[in-house]
Every structure is written in structure tokens, then in C-alpha cells.
Amino acid sequence: MSASTQTKILGYLPQDAPPWGAMISLGFQQVLTMFPATVLVAILTKFDVGVTLTASGIGTIVALLVSGRRIPLYYGSSFSYITVVVTTMSLYANDCFSDPATFYCPEGVRIVQVGIMGTAIVEILVGLLIMRIGKEALDRILPPVITGSVAIVIGIALAGAALNMASANWTVAFITLVVTIAFSVYLQGKGLIGMLPILLGAIFGYIVSAIFFPSMMNYQIIADAKWLQMPQFTLPAFGDPNAWAAVTGIALIAIATIPESTAHLYQMSLYIDQLAKDLGRAPLEIKRLIGLNLVADGSDDLVVGFLGGCAGTNYGENNSLMAITRCYSVPVLMTAGVIAILLGFVGKLAAVVNTLPVAVTGGLSIYLFGVIGMQGIALIQSEKVNLFEPRQLAVGAIILIAGIGGNLGLKDGLFPFPIPVLFPSGIPAIVFSALLGILVNLIFLFLPPKMFGVEDRENINL
Question: pTM score, two decimals?
């Protein structure tokens, strides 16, 4: 490839640093892409918006450094933890969700922080284990039928919460829902604007509420807020026994987020190596860094857990943006982290976010929570799980019924099996379903059907 040809190719590999002007504009674009979903998780779980933004930026920078600046990912708030966080806060900080006007609940946040840091430890240990024994061994214990089914449970179990918020004003909720879906479908491939259907849907719902239902709006929050203010950082409640009861339940959600993070890494690796080829440079093959990637994920959760931000994950939206712009520069992502940190100190911004009507949030949630469930189905489908095989059906079936049915049908979403210290009030349905699926899968590993002369059924989808 000639030098003249190379200069026509626009793109930055992870180690590349664009000029400062481009670096700031590209970094701001990354922040704009992560902003809607990251902030929405904070709203849904009663976390401080300013802390969530600041922790997102710091966590991203730390994760990039831990990965040796080799894995270009941006970390925002994870939807996967919403169900267990809401359950935990409802159990141990009862005032958090009793009043719709409450948009920040420090008591509940401090309890959940301990659980988020527990998640970080799990992710780091799994990452180190993969670096030691390889991903294939882990996949036997956590096959796609488990991880995919748990993801389905996480999304569908939130159906009640989404509809409850939407019931504040069904008209606003359904207008927001339909418009958001339209943006996500019809703006695909339209550049940056195509990456922001949630933000655009929220803005549209906000405008509809302000014009036709002004009684739903509370602008005094904005007037009372300062332009610059310190985010409301909190320390984890390590001394609270309820916090330790939350650790296992929250940390087990990593079962769903680990495959998600790994899938993101594989996707990124393909695009980065193609760009390297176009630039006449050696492929980076970051897909080999699965273990290191999970250690970086855990590092992010250590940071956000300590500061009081929402549990994090590397964002597929930002990965898509990088694929579109062909900019995988780690310096750009670190710049984005700095911008997010600074935005966390803008009090007026957090106040505007907190005026978002509950019905608008409900409309967005109907769509987003459903997508989480559908992504679990997509994982099972993409991994070609043989659903004609009784053992696969058994594992998936019990996870779905125990998880979804338990969360919607049992009191407080708890199975009545108290375990001292860990689950004194009973086992959360999502946690119980995941443990049940893992246990049954282990039985099949130690007592495979072939020991009894049973042959695996053919997967006719193949």
C-alpha cells in the first residue's frame, strides 16, 4: 500500500492520538453516546446523576490503564443490575421507592455499593482464571443457555417496574415508547444521531409532557440547583449487615455481563484488525485479551462502587460509534472520561435530568427492558444452543420460571429460603434462578447422558 493511499484512510488504532481539536470533539461524541443510557439507569435506581457521570469517567480511565491502553472501551451504567439493585434497596432502604418524587436515595446507594464492589471482585477473579485456564473451561460451567436465560430473566422481570412507571400517564408513556422505537429503527446508519434514539425519545417525551401535561413538570428543581456543585459521593456501607447480604445477589449478575463484555471484545477486535490491515499495520488481535478485559471491567466496578456510581459495563453504543467513525483511539476515550468527570460537577445538568417525568421514563423502560430480554435470546441463538436437547431445555426452563415467576409472583421477589448473613430475608428470584441453573448444569457435567447410553439429539437448526 502506497503512502498516498494510506493518507486517504481515516481512522485511529488504540495507540494513536489525534490532534487536540479532533481528540476533544471525538471524546465529546463518545460522552454524548453513553449519556442517555447511563443517566437513565441512575434515574431508575435512585443514584446521584452527578456521581454516576463522574464515576463513569474515572472508571473508564482506570479500566483503560489497567488494560495497558490496549482495549478501547467506554464504561457506562449497566441495565443488567437494575432488577437486583431495586430489589435490594426496596428490602433494606424502604423509603427509596415509596415516593415517586424521590430521585436520590443515599441510604440504599451505600448498601448497593458493597454489592457492586463484590461484583468487581468476581469479574477480576474470573478474568484471572481465564488468563490461567482459558475461556473454554469457564464456558462449560457457564454455557450460553445459562447466561442467555439469566439475561432474559433480568429484562422480563423488570416488566412490572416499567409498566408501573408508565401508568403515571399512559399517553405520554406510549408516545415516548413509539417515538423511541421509530428513532431506533429509522435512524440506523445516519451517523451520530442514529446512535442516540434513547436521548431523542426522552427529549420528545419531555416536550410532549411540558406542552400538554404541564402539571407533571417541576422546574423548581432546576432553579434551585447550582451551576457548579460537588457530586454527592458516598462511601460503601461496609459496617451494615444488610450490605453484606446484598453482595452475593448483586455479584451474581456478572453471570450475564461477562458474556456481554466478551462479545463486545470480539466485535471490536474484528473492526480494529480490519483498520490495521487498511493502514498497512500489524493486527492487534485484542480478542486474545478476554481475561484482561474482565479484569478491566472489575477495575471499573471497583471505582464506581467505591464512589457511589451505578454498576458499569463497557458500552455497545460506544463500540458501534467507534466502528462508524473508525476511531479506536484510547487517548480519545480517556479524553471522554475527563469530559464525563467535569459534567458530573454541573449541577444544572443533573437538575434537568431529574425533571424527566416518570411516565417518560416508563415509556423508555418498556422498550429498554424488553431489549435486555431479547439480547438473552440473541445470545442463545448466536451460540447455536441446541434447544432440541432435553438437558439444554431443562436448564433454560427452570431459570426462566424461577427467575421471572419468582420476581413477579413471590412476595418481594424472594424465595422463602433464608440463609444467615447472605440472604436473611430469603433468596432473590434472579439469584435463585441462576444458582439453580448452574447446579443442574453441573449435574449434567458430572453425570452426562452418554453414561446412560443416551445420545445427544441433533440440532436441526444447523
Answer: 0.85
